Amino acid sequence: MLTEERRNEIVSYIEEHKAVTVQELVDALDASAATIRRDLTALHDEHRILKVFGGATSISSKDVNTIEPSVAEKAHRNTAEKDLISEYAASLIQDNDFVYIDSGTTTLHLIDHITNKKAKYITNGVVHAKRLLERGLSTMIIGGRIKPVTEAVIGPDCVEALSKFHFTKSFMGTNGISVQAGFTTPDVDEALVKAEAIKHTYLSYILADHSKFGVVSSVTFSNLHSCCIITDEEPNKKYKDQTIIKAVC
Amino acid sequence: MLTEERRNEIVSYIEEHKAVTVQELVDALDASAATIRRDLTALHDEHRILKVFGGATSISSKDVNTIEPSVAEKAHRNTAEKDLISEYAASLIQDNDFVYIDSGTTTLHLIDHITNKKAKYITNGVVHAKRLLERGLSTMIIGGRIKPVTEAVIGPDCVEALSKFHFTKSFMGTNGISVQAGFTTPDVDEALVKAEAIKHTYLSYILADHSKFGVVSSVTFSNLHSCCIITDEEPNKKYKDQTIIKAVC
DNA sequence: GATTTTCCGTGATTGACTTTGATTATTTAT
DNA sequence: ATAAATAATCAAAGTCAATCACGGAAAATC
Fold first, then answer.
1. Are residues B43 and B79 in the same domain?
2. Stated in angstroms, how far is B35 CA from D9 C1'?
């Protein structure tokens, strides 16, 4: 059987059963455990399944029960990569830093790793603000209209409020990273907010797992060389020529 | 069974039952208590459930758990009275109203009774904003520093942001109501915010149960005749001479 | 055309790591 | 104070990634 063919079958099987053990797949597909494991690793890297200890689960199985996956509920996907990235990013925060934290699930993860209580934090995410407070950190929120799905503060009030601040560091999420289009996101309003935040920051960091490279979304909010990238895999050289990239792996 | 699979089932179970004991999960999933506890700890760290002594509860169980324990504790006192007051207050909201909702436990209760989706809502409470969004209402938040205990946005940024708006109605909490001192609250910063909000509102309502009458706290944020009072017991005549009071009982 | 070389996917082996349930010590609620 | 719940620790069982050798297919060489 062809490798690709087998892998497609694995994905189908997992989609159907929600969760599966390595042994189950060994029996079902008549391949060795080593091969199945390699397949699962590959499929996990392609974000087609979620590899877990003992087997794999379908990507969407976690929110099968929730009617509307909100920010907090989505945040636990792909945690291993995000943990690495967040941990490194959090270590960059120094005493007296004035830190902007962009809304989004990657940056939400970042907050769980922040330990520096001498820095000040400001965010446009409602959940982010709540979580920062839970960790006992000095927190501010940007005012403005709130976008329901992402629970992010956006709009002209938000952009104007941002223009008054001067952050020492900012941590942003992104949907796409490309040499031609720079950093991109699907929502115009969010893009405007991100752009304004970066404009008022001394050092901007983009937190992005490897799957974001080469992806282009609707709206550009920054060119590559304005932000450092923190990611989980050594990227193609053409990106490295454009900006500083830290790969944690 | 896979670890992740079991944990997903635990989340489902908790989502469905709102609360669950360790023993219940041991019986339901046929795993040892030690394992269940480890699962609960892990899920709590991922913010997928809320671990409590004896078991766990759902994170989105609207009654208790979206609120900080400190806030939640207070919110559970005098619920019956607050429900009456909130219900009446919510009925006052009309289409196209621009409504300011002050932070505090009484006003948090109010949100659960709001049904008008044609009005616009703005608040200085982080939890309030989240709750408004959950109810599918058009929501804005005021920006500024957040006071950790109450999760209320306060400070000069907040006051300045408020000064741009013109609300048709505002709903405020208070700690004390007295003929001499007017409406009072213990925190200077919160008082400034409340005062500014009232200043920019056409019709301000104070939600207060009967225990607040005759009480004086540290800082006055308004005199009596600037706001209507919504309360749960017919108050003394001396208050009625000063402002409009609606007693719901 | 036949032989060699290279490449890639596979399966087996192994030491390292993860999960689990039992036991014990500690913490918590009443 | 007491009883229950929890966290910490440990050994056993199970799982994983790395490594190696094998074998078939494609490419290079003769």
1. no
2. 14
Q: What's the predicted TM-score (pTM) here? A: 0.86
Residue A30's domain comprises 3-63
What is the tens place of the pLDDT at every residue in B37-59? 999 999 999 989 999 999 999 98
Q: State mean pLDDT over B235-241.
A: 90
Query: Smallest CA–C1' separation from A53: which nucleotide?
Result: D15
| Residue B249 CB lies within 7 Å of the nucleic strand C | no
In a domain? residue B208: yes
Q: Which residues of B touch A129 (CB under 8 A)?
A: 126, 146
In-domain check, residue B136: yes
Eight-class DSSP state of A93: -
Nucleotide nearest to B37 (CA to C1'): D6
One domain, residues B205 and B88:
yes
A106 and A202 share one domain: yes
d(CA B242, CA B50) in angstroms, rounded, equals 46
Co-location of A168 and A219 in the same domain = yes
Given A63, A79, A94, which residue is the final one in a domain?
Answer: A63
- Residues in B whose CB is inside 8 Å of some CB of A read 2-5, 8, 11-12, 15-16, 45-48, 59, 68, 126-127, 129-130, 133, 136, 138-146, 148, 151, 153, 157-158, 161
Measured CA distances, A215 to A35, A166, A209, A223, A228 (Å): 30, 30, 12, 14, 17
* Burial label, A4 (beta-carbon count in 10 A; 0-12, 13-18, 19+): exposed
- Tell me whether residues A141 and B139 touch, CB distance under 8 A: no
- Integer CA distances (angstroms), B87 to B84, B108, B135, B213, in order: 5, 12, 15, 20
> What are the tens digits of pLDDT across the range A117-157?
999 999 999 999 999 998 999 999 999 999 999 999 999 99
Nucleotide nearest to B33 in CA–C1' terms: C21
Q: Is the pLDDT of residue A74 over 70?
A: no
Looking at residue B140, its amino acid is M
Number of domains in chain A: 2
pLDDT of residue A193: 98
CATH number at residue A46: 1.10.10.10
Q: What are phi and psi of B108, to 5 degrees?
A: -65, -40
- CATH assignment at residue A107: 3.40.50.1360
Q: What is the pLDDT of residue A47?
A: 87
pLDDT score at A77: 60
Å between CA of A1 and C1' of D28 = 27
Give me the CA A25–C1' C11 separation in Å, rounded: 15
- A140 and B151 within 8 Å at the Cβ level: the answer is no
Question: Which residue is the nearest neighbor of D18, CA to C1'?
Answer: A34
**b/e B151-167 (16+ beta carbons within 10 angstroms → b):** bbbbbebbbbbbeebeb
Closest CA to B187 of B176, B179, B200: B176
